[in-house]
Amino acid sequence: xxxxxxxQVDFQMEQYVYKRRPDGVYVMNMRKMWEKxxxxxxxxxxxxxxADVFVVSSRPYxxxxxxxxxxxxxxxxxxxxxxxGTFTNYIQKNYREPRLLVITDPRADHQAVREASYVxxxxxxxxxxxxxLRHVDIAVPTNNKSIHSxxxxxxxxxxxxxxxxxxxxxxVPWEVMVDLYFYRDPEEVEKEEQxxxxxxxxxxxxxxxxxxxxxWGADINEPTQDWAAESAPPxxxxxAP
Length: 241
Prior knowledge:
Elements: E1 17-20, E2 26-28, H1 30-45, E3 53-57, H2 60-73, E4 76-79, E5 100-103, H3 110-118, E6 123-127, E7 138-141, H4 147-165, H5 186-210, H6 236-239
Parallel strand pairs: 3-4, 3-5, 5-6, 6-7
Antiparallel strand pairs: 1-2
């Protein structure tokens, strides 16, 4: 679940912890989680140009989520390895100057966080109970280790940003399914595609077997019509008295 933390807690994340379970795992406060999620969405919606918001995830579990988030909100996604100097080295080709940075894991994306601190870019981060908050401006407490909790957090963030911008209404549910933000294992995707192809082939074979076979020689024994035997219609000249 999104509220399940780790077995360790950072001193700056203690304010978001609700309790500690008997097995030693920390449980985070859902109310504070939602408050910080809305606060982060308000900060993102305050940026006039959506392309000035950069979303980063070097871990595979968050890459599909940030790509879907970027497609929904107009942000720029950096999925995979973050090239050092992207925010600081203006000579290189990939130099960018974002106004806001949103990251999945401050530990894995430490390079982006450090460079953002050099050039005064605010940082929003999904933080677990043991995540260090150095250079993080807005911490959204959630389980950033689980596939489903990462996807759910990005889905909530995208929906709230679109609602604050007025793109979608709060009166109707968002038509985008949260499943689209979940990481999918390439091997599982390949197995599903292979199973779908086999199922389609089996269905086509069954349809072909069930269809009646056409008999091309069935019309041979049908009686033929003799056009010469029919009497010719009388002409106008012979029919006149």
